[in-house]
């Protein structure tokens, strides 16, 4: 244990040192004869406890406390005990107000009282620190909750808008591509609009995960496989002036995570690394199997056990120590206005915690930064990677599909897309209109594709229930732009396919075919 005594009285210094060593000779004691030397000592080294005399030649003990006091934590850098020649209550109150944990009257001091004061100060200091940490976490969760409410409020309308954009740009792109004119410019513009809409769709999904409004699709995943499949994207993200070094474990465990969110996390960390190396540098991506013991999990705030660790290191200018604790806070950014939302690392951290893991930051000034991401090991056996929906070739059919959607433009574009791929489409803008069609015994219908939340007394789930009474063999597929918690009768949907808005034409066609084929 290291303690510091700030006192200009040589006799008192010697007396206190002997008293402490008589009780515990292992304690290391440093001395400072005035306030300036004491403050310098505190700035240079961490102490387990500091004793400060109230009367000093250059500063009072209270003035020293004010200089080292951190108003945001309501604490000094370490436990403090004020020493006074008298027992005035005003002295005690001032000392406590500016971060001291206890005070002692010099004439009543003994070795035992000094040791007791150290232990008491440490206990109170640690208790206060724990309270501060709890407050910070509460504040963080409140920010997330507020963002969640905001996300939930805009998600439905925004997803409807994006569905219209994605559907129409794809239709226009296909139409332009089929003509013989030189329309490369028009095609490029359409593709730009489509890409922007896809980015907006991805942003909504990330925000919904971050604010706990969308469940993660956690599956056993080989992170090495994901990294290898992303190689070209990683190199485009990092730029030509930065070298990527991969150190991937030969025998990596599967991890429990959401692959889409993992890809977003990797890109975000790499983008930050690129920005930290404007003149070029090196990024190292490493994967390892690790077993965390009790000591490590206490630091990382996870459960002990087996984890897959992915480390991404850069040779950039590092992250200043005074902002490292804020890196994962929502809306915190050091970038210029318009160049960063302050959500990237917050979303990444929230994702890791949702998967049962965490992110650990290691950074020093001018020594670069390392983000260590931990995911729990999966007990599942590795299987071949499933092909992403976006990579599948759309397959059409000739079945009859009833599309029920109150948003006119979505209804229209969805029907056109299905029609282009051979399906016969019936349209309804409400549940009542759909029921009229369903009750027509002469009208064949192979699949009901309905929005869940619609105006009127009947929602999509209730419509499907009535449709199955009329047509027990009818295939059902739902779509929605709402967050999960806002969907009525959500528990009844577990056995059905729910296509989240905004959906892309390929995803729509693929899921329609899957439902019709009973896959």
Summarize the SSE layout with pairings.
Blueprint (H helix, E strand, L loop, with lengths): L1 E5 L3 H14 L4 E5 L2 H10 L4 E5 L7 H8 L11 E5 L4 H9 L4 E4 L5 H67 L6 H27 L8 E3 L1 H7 L1 H8 L3 E6 L7 E3 L1 H17 L5 E12 L1 H7 L4 E10 L29 H11 L3 E6 L5 E8 L23 E5 L3 H13 L3 E5 L2 H8 L8 E5 L8 H11 L4 E6 L16 E4 L4 H13 L2
Give a structural overview.
The protein is α/β, with parallel strands linked by helices. The chain folds into four domains: about 1-130, 3-Layer(aba) Sandwich (Rossmann fold); about 150-210; about 220-375, Heat Shock Protein 90, CATH 3.30.565.10; about 400-515, 3-Layer(aba) Sandwich (Rossmann fold). It has helices at about 10-25, 35-45, 60-70, 90-95, 110-175, 185-210, 225-230, 230-240, 260-275, 295-300, 345-355, 410-420, 430-440, 460-470, 505-515; strands at about 1-5, 30, 50-55, 80-85, 100-105, 220, 240-245, 255, 280-290, 305-315, 360-365, 370-375, 400-405, 425-430, 445-450, 475-480, 495-500. The strands form four sheets. Strands 2-1-3-4-5 form a five-stranded parallel β-sheet, sandwiched between helices. A five-stranded mixed β-sheet has the order 7-9-10-12-11. It is elongated and about 105 Å long.
